[in-house]
Amino acid sequence: NAGVTQTPKFQVLKTGQSMTLQCAQDMNHNSMYWYRQDPGMGLRLIYYSASEGTTDKGEVPNGYNVSRLNKREFSLRLESAAPSQTSVYFCASGSTTGRVEAFFGQGTRLTVV
Amino acid sequence: GESVGLHLPTLSVQEGDNSIINCAYSNSASDYFIWYKQESGKGPQFIIDIRSNMDKRQGQRVTVLLNKTVKHLSLQIAATQPGDSAVYFCAEIRSGTSYGKLTFGQGTILTVHP
Fold it and tell me: Of A21, A70, A82, B81, which residue is most buried, by most CB within 10 angstroms?
């Protein structure tokens, strides 16, 4: 049972480069989320998708775009990476009814130089 | 989101002791409060949740207390073990939002000494 799988695990980008972080879940959850975590801080929501076909901004959406490709997959794109986007990125999925538990992936550690 | 700096609160305990981790929240319009555990290099892992109309909830070795009067949440871990060493985050699910849309607190580093 894989849960939430993120790729890649590590990435180094040069300022101005673009990349897409991939996320897939196998728990048949409707909702998926992208968070970032900076040193010594809690996670902050970047974007989320409450259901397939919908996406909404979270707390810190600037510089990012997302695509909910299907029910399983939710990708995060950095069009022009900046050093301020150096962070650890976590994808999560969750139900919209029943249990409140959200399931997180292992994270992608991104460094922008 | 507010910036909280690089220095997380820390709690050091001996194996077998009980641990109490505290969290203050600011938003009164939250449906659920949740505790997550994050081990080094891993994503957060759900521990326990409490609905806003409850004061106390118990799980396996853990108890969460909610004091809405002073907007305070605590996590009690009984008979703390070295495997409990991690960063612990409280999080809120605000009213009208989906369950994974979490507002996280700062976090507390728990270190358990054998």
Answer: A21
A1 strand-pairing partners = none
* Closest to A100 measured CA to CA, from B63, B43, B64, B35: B35
Cα A60 vs. chain centroid, distance in angstroms? 12
Name B96's Cβ contacts closer than 8 Å, sequence gap at least 6: none
pLDDT in tens, chain A (113 residues): 679 999 999 999 999 999 999 999 999 999 999 999 998 788 999 999 998 989 999 999 999 999 998 999 999 999 999 999 999 999 999 987 777 889 999 999 999 99
Specify whether the CB–CB gap between B112 and B37 falls below 8 A. no
Nearest CA in chain B to A40: B6
Per-window interface: B 49-88 vs A, CB < 8 A: 49
Q: Are the CB atoms for A21 and A87 separated by under 8 Å?
A: no
- pLDDT value for B28: 76
CA distance A47 to A60: 8
Task: Choose, out of A51, A101, A106, the residue to mutate when testing the contact with B (most B CBs < 10 Å).
Answer: A101
For residue A48, give the nearest of B44, B101, B104 by CB distance.
B101
